[in-house]
């Protein structure tokens, strides 16, 4: 760690803290993700999955891992520093995203997801807060703590307790454990719809409310729209009032026909029929005017981290004080 200076705290994840740092050898900013290690257990499996995933995935739309090192009882992941996320843009940018900007972000998301899936990796936690953006406007998928390898020739069971609720595919809400990378695409559809509407599409407060909102929007599923529904573990645990699907032109009232076509082709019950990332990249949404805009026209936010030289001990002391309040 002698090669890095800590400049400020950049964020907090489920499995560790992220700091802004300076690589004193290159004078370039880096992100330092600190994860505590239990000596009796070793590296947490989520951290191990993230390390393995990022060592395999080398794409301009996936965050880059530079180095893994240790300090005391913690492991440090040294990654490229990306000053804000898509969640920050949606919350703090002072004007609505233009369709060209939405298309540019969507294309970068889909490029990253396609590369990920081509390499047999499911992210399982796609959401705006995990889509980081560089100072030049390049969007990169981050936080691979829930990532898993997927091999369609060797089906296996996975945990259904993945993905942040608002972006969780309906099969996960029904307890599916043998899902596919199409769960990532459901999340992508929710993210694109959120960019269009300026607010989350399915903002449930509980898992049951989440499922109720989805069913109320897409209508009650049947054997045609979701053939495998009755086989899901939690199918008979709760019943919802019958509902008819809402018109997508009303759900996405400001969207043009190609945007509606893309989102409605992703946000469907049957994961086997959802557009893949590769298919979505070929959709007319990205091939019609207005085209995805240049990076120079993408939103830019201020990096709000005030730069001071700290040590991890300083941060740990501050965090301990906060926890005691």
How does this structure look, described?
The protein has 325 residues and is α+β, with helices and mostly antiparallel strands. It has 2 domains: 4-83 and 303-324, Phosphorylase Kinase, domain 1; 84-297, Orthogonal Bundle (Transferase(Phosphotransferase), domain 1), CATH 1.10.510. 32% of the residues lie in helices and 16% in strands. It contains 10 helices and 10 strands. The strands form 3 sheets. Strands 1-2-3-5-4 form a 5-stranded antiparallel β-sheet, with helices on one face. A 3-stranded antiparallel β-sheet has the order 6-8-9. A hairpin with a 4-residue loop joins strand 2 and strand 3 (28-36). Helix 3 (99-118) packs antiparallel against helix 5 (182-197). The radius of gyration is 21 Å and the shape is globular. The mean pLDDT is 90. Belongs to the protein kinase superfamily. CMGC Ser/Thr protein kinase family. CDC2/CDKX subfamily. Pfam families: Pkinase. Keywords: ATP-binding, Cell cycle, Cell division, Cell projection, Cytoplasm, Developmental protein, Kinase, Nucleotide-binding, Nucleus, Serine/threonine-protein kinase, Transferase.
List the helices and strands and how they pair.
Layout (H helix, E strand, L loop, with lengths): L3 E10 L2 E8 L4 E9 L8 H12 L8 E7 L2 E7 L3 E2 H7 L6 H20 L2 E2 L8 E3 L5 E3 L6 E2 L20 H4 L8 H16 L9 H12 L29 H4 L5 H10 L10 H5 L30 H13 L1
Helix pairs in contact: 3-5, 5-8
Family: Belongs to the protein kinase superfamily. CMGC Ser/Thr protein kinase family. CDC2/CDKX subfamily.
Protein name: Cyclin-dependent kinase 20
InterPro entries: CDK, CDK20-like_STKc, Kinase-like_dom_sf, Prot_kinase_dom, Ser/Thr_kinase_AS
């Amino acid at each position: 760690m002698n090669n890095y200076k800590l400049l400020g705290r950049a964020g907090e994840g489920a499995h560790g803290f992220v700091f802004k740092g300076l690589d004193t050898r290159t004078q370039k900013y880096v992100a330092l993700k600190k994860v505590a290690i239990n000596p009796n257990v070793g590296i947490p499996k989520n951290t191990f999955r993230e390390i393995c995933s990022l060592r395999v995935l080398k794409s301009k739309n996936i965050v880059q891992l530079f180095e893994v090192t240790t300090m005391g009882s913690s492991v440090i992941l040294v990654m490229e520093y990306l000053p804000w996320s898509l969640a920050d843009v949606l919350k703090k940018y002072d004007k609505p995203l233009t369709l060209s900007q939405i298309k540019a972000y969507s294309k970068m998301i889909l490029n990253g997801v396609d590369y990920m899936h081509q390499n047999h990796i499911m992210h399982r936690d796609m959401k705006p807060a995990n889509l980081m953006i560089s100072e030049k406007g390049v969007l990169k998928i981050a936080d691979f703590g829930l990532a898993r390898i997927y091999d369609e020739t060797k089906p296996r069971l996975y945990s259904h307790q993945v993905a942040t609720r608002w972006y969780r595919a309906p099969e996960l809400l029904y307890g599916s454990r043998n899902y596919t990378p199409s769960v990532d695409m459901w999340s992508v559809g929710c993210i694109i719809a959120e960019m269009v509407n300026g607010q989350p599409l399915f903002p449930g407060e509980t898992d049951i409310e989440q499922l109720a909102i989805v069913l109320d929007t897409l209508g009650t599923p049947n054997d045609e729209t979701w053939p495998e529904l009755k086989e899901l573990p939690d199918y008979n645990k709760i019943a919802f009032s019958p509902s008819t699907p809402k018109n997508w032109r009303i759900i996405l009232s400001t969207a043009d026909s190609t945007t509606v076509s893309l989102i409605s082709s992703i946000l469907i019950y049957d994961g086997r029929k959802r557009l893949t990332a590769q298919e979505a990249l070929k959709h007319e949404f990205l091939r019609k005017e207005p085209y995805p805009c240049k990076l120079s026209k993408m939103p830019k936010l201020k990096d709000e981290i005030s730069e001071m030289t700290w040590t991890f001990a300083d941060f740990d002391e501050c965090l301990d004080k906060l926890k005691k309040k």
